[in-house]
């Protein structure tokens, strides 16, 4: 039995590591002039540059994630519904990849009116997170919703009728070093996040080969 | 003959007693079954299915000395809580949202589950016990409402 399982595990791990993670970013048309001719090509959208403020009060731009793969999510500290689940799960990711200089976590608050720098700092402290590997960022509400909906492709819309006042997707988004989206996971479940961690390892392996 | 009658009487008495206890036991199990489901949908997000809470964010129920304040616990299940509390010597300061949609019976079922699972109780906390406690703290809660969790 154990042998069969082991064999199955080997087959699985082989087939998985052979295959690269797909690029899920949307394609967009780009028109360039090549040799005097106008050529339209399609390229993958990338996560655009941004400027938010972290739990330590400093400005975080795309420089912070340069040459790193990272997991992005959207939450707010006073959310009683799915956020606690998401944070428990993301904490597992944090513990697993703690100290790995190639991996970062970026949690955006969708309630910047309440989630000030001090509130985010206390939340991170209370969650047992220190250092800069997991940044909790706040900023202009519209900008956060915009990057969430248009760049990370998650639903971050306000809906005052839902418990907690905001409906959001509970998704974790895996972004590679070229700022392409490589996976979207259910951040509220153990299985979803197990898959995320497996895919982080696969993505890390792509950069080693 | 009288001995036999006496024996029957005793047996009948025992049977009644047994069925009484099992009625009580069936009720307790109903409370707990409902309580588990209600706990999962209303409490476990923060306090976790195993009742251990999350780091310094959300306090544990398992092994929690706060359970000694049973009336307070019953009130905060429905009306939430604001401001710092100390659980097992650790300070927690995160608002707990009110769950005003919970009926008295549902609060009783959650309380029964929590105290059977983590409070070393073996009986049920009946709805008749819970109603006056909730009544008493309702007035309090209206004067001092827990914050809305919505932004």
UniProtKB/TrEMBL annotation, chain A:
Keywords from the UniProt entry: Copper, Disulfide bond, Metal-binding
Disulfide bond sites: 79-83
Annotated Thioredoxin domain residues: 41-205
Binding site for Cu cation: 79, 83, 168
InterPro entries: SCO1/SenC, Thioredoxin-like_sf, Thioredoxin_domain
Gene3D superfamilies referenced in this protein's UniProt entry, alphabetically: Glutaredoxin
GO molecular function: metal ion binding
Family, per entry: Belongs to the SCO1/2 family.
Name of this protein: SCO family protein
Automatic annotation (TrEMBL), chain B:
InterPro entries: Cyt_c-like_dom (IPR009056), Cyt_c-like_dom_sf (IPR036909), Cytochrome_c-type_DH (IPR051459)
Highest taxon, organism lineage: Bacteria
Alphabetical keyword list: Heme, Iron, Metal-binding
Coiled coil: none
The keyword Metal-binding appears for this protein: yes
UniProt GO MF annotations: electron transfer activity; heme binding; metal ion binding
Domain (Cytochrome c): residue spans on this chain: 30-118
Protein name: Cytochrome c
Organism: Spirosoma sordidisoli
């Amino acid at each position: 039995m154990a042998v069969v399982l082991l064999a199955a595990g080997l087959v699985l791990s082989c087939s998985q590591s052979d295959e690269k993670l797909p690029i899920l970013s949307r394609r967009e048309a780009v028109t360039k002039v090549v040799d005097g001719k106008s050529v339209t090509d399609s390229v993958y959208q990338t996560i655009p540059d941004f400027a938010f403020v972290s739990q330590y009060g400093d400005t975080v731009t795309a420089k912070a994630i340069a040459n790193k793969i990272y997991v992005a999510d959207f939450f707010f500290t006073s959310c009683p519904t799915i956020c606690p689940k998401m944070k428990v799960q993301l904490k597992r990711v944090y513990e697993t990849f703690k100290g790995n200089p190639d991996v970062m976590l970026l949690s955006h608050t969708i309630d910047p009116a309440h989630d000030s720098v001090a509130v985010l700092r206390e939340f991170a402290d209370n969650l047992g997170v220190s250092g800069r590997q997991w940044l909790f960022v706040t900023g202009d509400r519209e900008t956060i919703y915009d990057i969430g909906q248009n760049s990370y492709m998650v639903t971050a819309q306000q809906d005052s009728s839902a418990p907690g006042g905001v409906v959001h997707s509970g998704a974790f988004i895996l972004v590679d070093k070229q700022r392409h989206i490589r996976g979207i996971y259910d951040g509220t479940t153990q299985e979803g996040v197990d898959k995320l961690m497996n895919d982080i390892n696969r993505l890390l392996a792509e950069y080693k080969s | 003959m009288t001995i036999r009658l006496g024996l029957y009487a005793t047996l009948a008495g025992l049977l009644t007693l047994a069925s009484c206890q099992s009625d009580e036991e069936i009720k307790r199990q109903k409370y707990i079954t409902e309580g588990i489901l209600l706990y999962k949908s209303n409490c476990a997000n923060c306090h976790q299915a195993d009742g251990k809470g999350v780091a310094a964010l959300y306090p544990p129920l398992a092994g929690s000395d706060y359970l000694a304040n049973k009336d307070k616990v019953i009130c905060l299940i429905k009306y939430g809580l604001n401001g710092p509390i100390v659980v097992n010597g650790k300070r927690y300061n995160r608002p707990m949202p009110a769950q005003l949609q919970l009926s008295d019976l549902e609060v009783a079922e959650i309380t029964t589950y929590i105290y059977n699972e983590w409070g070393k109780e073996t009986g049920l906390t009946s709805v008749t016990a819970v109603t006056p406690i909730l009544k008493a703290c309702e007035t309090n809660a209206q004067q001092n409402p827990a914050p809305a969790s919505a932004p």
